Amino acid sequence: MDEQIKQIAERLRGLRDAMELTPNDIANECGIDKDEYERAESGEHDISVSMLQQIARHYNIALDALMFGEEPKMSTYFLTRAGKGISVERTKAYKYQSLAAGFKDRKADPFIVTVEPNDRPMHYNTHAGQEFNLVIEGTLLLSIGGKELTLTPGDSIYFNSSLPHGMKALDGKTVRFLAIIM
């Protein structure tokens, strides 16, 4: 995990250097807290997918380029075989597996998210747009704008992702769900 975060941080710094911007410029232009951005760029802290998505959308680059270091190439279709999506483990608690990494100019970013049980406090994200989650396995505690919801396999939710939202695996078991970020 640590190596993947360091690679993402390196790509963030490379993007910023290529555009001749300061960390403050990126934070202001993307509506991100400057300290949060600098922590992400350091490679020593968790990097939220929502922050990467904000940066990618603002600068019109592929989210995959920041997350995985690969540019999407397909425009007709992109097939992801079971368990074969490009993955990144942002923390020991979350793993994201991209289901459309090779499709360029996508309108949404689908992931299989794996949440491991832990005792840490829930981490909250916000990002522009909307999000859809469908639980595949386990029991997920999802907090959206202060409202806590429990989802089990087959349950789905569509929500305004500009509201603070976070998730936690319940019952000491791993949770897997489909997340589509739009």
TrEMBL record:
Keywords: DNA-binding. SUPFAM superfamilies: lambda repressor-like DNA-binding domains, RmlC-like cupins. Residues 12-66 form the HTH cro/C1-type domain. InterPro entries: Cro/C1-type_HTH, Cupin_2, Lambda_DNA-bd_dom_sf, RmlC-like_jellyroll, RmlC_Cupin_sf, TransReg_Diox_bact_type. It holds the Pfam family HTH_31. It comes from the Bacteria. GO terms for cellular component: cytosol. One of its GO terms (molecular function) is DNA binding. Gene3D superfamilies: Jelly Rolls, lambda repressor-like DNA-binding domains. The keyword DNA-binding applies. Signal peptide: none annotated. PANTHER family: BLL2473 PROTEIN, HTH-TYPE TRANSCRIPTIONAL REGULATOR. This is Helix-turn-helix transcriptional regulator. It comes from Mediterranea massiliensis.
